Amino acid sequence: MLQQQNEKSPGASAEFPAAQSERLPSPFVGFLNKTAVIAELELRKLRHDPTELFTRAIQPAIWLLLFGQVFSHSRSFPTGGLPYIDFMVPGILAQSVLFIAIFYGIAIIWERDLGIIQKFLVSPTPRSALVLGKALSAGLRAISQAVIIYILAVILKVKMNWTPGALLGVVAVVILGAAGFSTFSLIVACIVKTRERFMGIGQVLTMPLFFASNAIYPIAIMPAWLQVVSRMNPLTYEVDAFRALMVQGGTSQFGLPVDFAVLITLTAALVMVGAWFYPRVAR
């Protein structure tokens, strides 16, 4: 009997590490877990101070209720058969996502001053997971803006597209757009390193990005040079995707696969650049 047990023991000991290794998470799963933890930490801030959601609703309400109502009586814009207010709603959502994301980098400066970034940097969490987690949290914050704008659109009797596929597509575009621009904001914060400089640069960037896009007027009526700039502007592709997904009768000028490809590529590239810059903010 003892001999039989001894003969079985090597096999049992050989099987144990194999079974144990199967239970260990893969590097990719570990990366996703760390990214989710960072995103959840960022969202806790919103839970403690939800007033930000309501203050962010003021600007899109002004654009839609004042600017949109006035220009809805104008037929000078070729909107592809859409009423102007229907044409404008996707652009205002893209604007709201941009304004939330582009000032997200100031939180990085606050975290540096409080010593939080230094704690993140000495942890084993990959820099890319830190940056991607913050980007995802910005995207989840921006979903609240989509809810607000959908409510305003219903009040204004905009013919919205309520199919499940379209709604999921809008959520995906919101997250990608906010993630990309918030990561760009993080990179700027890592370079300038002071709140005053960052606020100045943020103000300078938001208006050109917004007005050099197809958010409130079509590309066709722009001067030739501005059309080139607009086609290089990632916000244009975000608006284009929103316009095809949000409103009935809306179409994508570039095609949804192109819109998503641009946003995914931009976000991935910026996350990699942001991971390289992120340690510099602590210096």
List the helices and strands and how they pair.
Blueprint: H1 2-23, H2 27-48, H3 51-55, H4 58-71, H5 84-102, H6 106-114, H7 116-121, H8 127-155, H9 164-192, H10 195-211, H11 224-232, H12 234-246, H13 256-277
Helix pairs in contact: 2-8, 4-5, 5-8, 5-9, 5-10, 5-12, 8-9, 8-13, 9-10, 9-12, 9-13, 12-13
- What portion of residues is helical? over 70%
What's the gyration radius in Å?
Answer: 23 Å
Helix segment tally:
13
Mean pLDDT: 81
* Succession of helices and strands: HHHHHHHHHHHHH
Structural domain tally: 1
Which strand-content bin applies to the residues? under 5%
Termini Cα gap? 67 Å
Nutshell version of this structure?
The chain has 13 helices and no strands.
Provide an overview of this structure.
This protein is an all-alpha fold. The protein has one domain (26-282). 76% of the residues lie in helices and 0% in strands. It contains 13 helices and no strands. The chain has helices at 2-23, 27-48, 51-55, 58-71, 84-102, 106-114, 116-121, 127-155, 164-192, 195-211, 224-232, 234-246, 256-277. Helix 8 (127-155) crosses helix 9 and helix 12 (234-246) crosses helix 13. It is globular and about 60 Å long. The chain starts with a helix and ends in a 6-residue tail after the last helix. Residues 1-22 have low confidence and may be disordered.
